[in-house]
UniProtKB/TrEMBL annotation, chains A, B:
Entry keyword set: Transferase
Record-given protein name: Glutathione S-transferase
Domain GST C-terminal: start-end pairs: 86-232
GO molecular function: glutathione transferase activity
Lineage: Bacteria, Pseudomonadati, Pseudomonadota, Alphaproteobacteria, Sphingomonadales
Superkingdom field: Bacteria
Length: 235, 235
């Protein structure tokens, strides 16, 4: 049975890390809310009882329902060999994915620093301040860490000789930052050659290349996590 | 060999979720920066190469170094039976811990909405706005989810008949919110009787009771994640 993935149908958002791993691995899934609607997602979420997701994305395997991106990827990694089996490797990939989750949350908070429930245009001054710190301090710190991760092994991938879900997630980090902060990325990405080379290798994986060329890949937009507001970018 | 835990020595912070699981499980560890200093922690962190932590806390097992709270707890859960062995249970506990991590990040961002690198007093107006949304929307949403989790099984604990690291973490969530938002918690915690009962059971675990009575438990303070600024509290 194909997995049922539930996530907001109009954005890449956090769900994209799951979509990329599924597509790269050639794993069959249905993107339920894209087949149906936002309302169907909310109805499904609200109808669940017991061990429920706190928020999308979540993956219905038919036997269990798994939420939280890093948790879904941990499951897919073990079940579909999108991660090595050795304990130290599994922990390292999960750790990397959780650090990526931290970056994603911070990238979101740049345009919504004060109130998630309010609009960007209601908090533009605060967002400008948050963006300055994000560009100057946080982007180099995260990207430097991921560059070290890309260099911390002998193979082409973060855990060695086979791509893993952490590799597809690092691809998405570079994509998202380039979209949201093109001027800043152009200025600094030369400092992270191993990460950029890894990004390029992921883009060439057959499953990823086919996905990116399809209409299943939703374009970045200003409803997602990585948003391009030119006034928040800068060298 | 005792584990070496590295975390900021002056605060509970994120490290407290690890300390509580270790103490509840009677697992031997050394709290390295408390034995030494902040500077020793930074020196240790900066001296590491290869698969490095992005930030504290991290646990040096002698064989590997594990960072990110949920990842450390995943390891301890499997290694020391602080979690059940069945896949669905392990995924559920990890999922809960990741949702707790989301709450912890949001609780931090209440007092530092605009700039993590700046002081609270430099962003008090924005913090007041962030706190209003956190108290009104986010606290009931998270607490309601954890109440459901406490009710989603037949036993006394979130995964059944034995306490797990997710139970000790939920204890800490209640403790932290009571410290930071005492008026708000007094007003609403009656809505979450299963969660509060679980909190009380954790407090009575012998390892936890001994820890809380010891000077190893650092008091909450305004350098940590959960901070009590009376102006950010309210019913």
């Amino acid at each position: 049975m194909a997995y049922k993935l539930w996530y907001w149908p109009g954005i890449q958002g956090r769900g994209e890390f799951v979509r990329l791993a599924l597509e790269a691995g050639g794993i069959e899934y249905r993107d339920m809310a894209r087949e149906q609607s936002d309302e169907a997602l909310l109805a499904d979420l609200n109808a669940r009882a017991g061990r429920t997701p706190f928020a999308p994305p979540y993956l219905d395997t038919g036997e269990t329902v798994i939420a939280q991106v890093a948790n879904i990827l941990l499951y897919l990694g073990e079940r579909h060999h999108l991660a090595p089996g050795a304990l130290a490797d599994r922990l390292w990939l999960n750790q990397l994915q959780l650090t990526i989750a931290d970056l994603v949350a911070e990238a979101h908070d740049v345009h919504h620093p004060v109130a998630t429930g309010a609009y960007y245009h209601e908090q533009k001054a605060e967002a400008a301040c948050a963006a300055e710190g994000f560009r100057a301090e946080r982007m180099p710190k995260f990207l430097g860490h991921f560059e070290d991760a890309a260099n911390a092994n002998d193979g082409d991938w973060v855990a060695g000789t086979r791509w893993t879900y952490a590799d597809t997630s690092l691809f998405q980090v570079v994509e998202g930052l380039r979209y949201a902060f093109p001027r800043r990325m152009a200025a600094i990405e030369g400092d992270y050659p191993a990460l950029i080379a890894l990004h390029d290798r992921v883009a060439q994986l057959p499953g990823v290349a086919a996905y990116l060329a399809s209409d299943r890949r939703i374009p970045f937009n200003e409803d997602g996590i990585f948003r391009h507001y030119p006034e928040l970018d800068g060298e």
